[in-house]
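no rush on this but wanted to send it before i forget. theres a chain ive been looking at and ive put its sequence and its fold in token form underneath. i want to understand how the tokens follow from the sequence so walk me through it. thanks a lot i owe you, the record is right below:
>
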Amino acid sequence: MDLESVRRYLETGGYEEDKNASTIEKMPLRFFERFILQGLHIDLIEPGRIVCSMKVPPRLLNGGNFLHGGATATLVDLVGSAAICTAGAAGTGVSVEINVSYLDAAFADEEIEIEARILRVGKAVGVASVELRNKRTGKLIAQGRHTKYLAISSKM
């Protein structure tokens, strides 16, 4: 692919003409989070741990027709952040690091389980481990770790 083709692909989201430009700008705030989380169900929530599940919706598939890596990383981000809150953190803070190892594919309408466990929540930093599994087979789809800086309240 030549450089200009790469530029056009990135600037138009993969479409030659951005017919959705005006529609995209009218999306509600935090639309992306709702887009990813719609259909997610909490199966268990306790201090330091969240287990949830969802059927992989077609809207989250990539060009190979399996769960998009960006959607997986966003689930690590959002569910990991929520788990940090269950451990008593006042807020979710800001991401310092997210890493994801992609180990298997999840396809449309497959039920996946997302489990987030707290590794550490201190005064300044929270760390969560998040695993995505095929709910039927138990096979590990992705494993991630999310580190967040938690705002320290001033004593002034």
